[in-house]
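Question: what's this shape?

___
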Amino acid sequence: MSRRPISTSPAPQDDSQRAPKRQRLDHLTQESFRNGVFLAPMVRSGALPTRLMALKHGATLVWGPEIVDKAILHAEREVDPITGVISYNGKSRAMFTTHPLEKPYLIYQIGSADPELAVQAAKTVMQDVSGVDLNCGCPKPFSTHAGMGAALLSNPDLLCGILEALRRELPKEISVSAKIRLLPTQEETKKLVERIARTGVNAITIHCRTRNMRPRERALVERLREIIEFVHELGLDVAIVENGDCTGTADAQRVRELTGADSVMIATAAESNPSCFSLTPLQDVESTLVPSYLRLCKYLDNHWSSTKFCVTQFKGTRSELSKTDIHELKSKIAKAKRYEDVEEIIGSWTGEDEFREVMRAVETRPPRIPTGAEQEEAVEEEIPAPCSTPPDRVNPEPPSSGAPKMGLRMPLPAIITGSDMISPTPTPGGMR
């Protein structure tokens, strides 16, 4: 592997040069799930680079892909000492990767049909996430065959038992939520939503399609308002998030007005263009998004197969590029077998520069003003100065490539860890 570009760390700042402080919340609450536009959990497409791009362009919270409970229990947690990427590695690949930059906004989704296993899985990763979500809506066989995903809709006792266990066993700092689908009738759906709300969850995401409906079928968004009004009449303090057919932040307001939902979750549109969370999404994504996405993926050592899949899903409004331009670029990516094959597309700007851009966008977003009890929990946080890659560090192989795992843990900069301590390894204990 080639070495990363050598960069010079900034000189220490005296007190007069220190960045200003801003308020932040230590953890998510019900209010965190209101007035937002979220990135949905997605099979394969919800990779770390996509989540970071979504945050860069304005996503309020991001969901990771579904990970089956048993799969994560024996994973080995590794921290890249250069980039700060945290990988939960299986025998041959990384099952889940994250970065401390996204932790305040990251919801980890669990696939489970067992309360005890769900709790163990959540505790395995809770140091790196802000909340856990139970997948109760995925209709794919890999999720439903063992009673997980949409199969839980037919077993509300088990569904609620898992949520109750998660809420009881996890610290209050970790939010608990569920993602479900509409049931065949309104009454059935309202009864299920009420039961879930009474488990103490922070939020319920309702995908406005039934279990048997496919993505190409129009979402039954008009059914949601009655369900939300029912929850309000019961006086239950739980945020309701709409999922289905929202095309971006500009469209989210329409969806909220139509349904009365507290927030909106986006899947398909974000898979096609992660900048849909901006009021001015990128056009000509083949030239405005793909190169920067490839640079970011290379820097974060995202496995090429994952990167290639995500990039091939990108599409959007065409402004200046011709069909021929787009075809040529997609053809180059389709033939590529590694990052070196797309260097012409990536350009000269480094992935480290790209990551700094993401970091700058995320850290300078206006802080949400806490309300009520949240005000008491707000703490002062010093906005850290950007860090630089240490010189003469070898670029490690991605954890999923079969390369030997890094044995020595090195201290990470404060910008990454928030402290001077080495990240501990937890005791060993899918996607949608």
Observations:
- The chain has 17 helices and 14 strands.
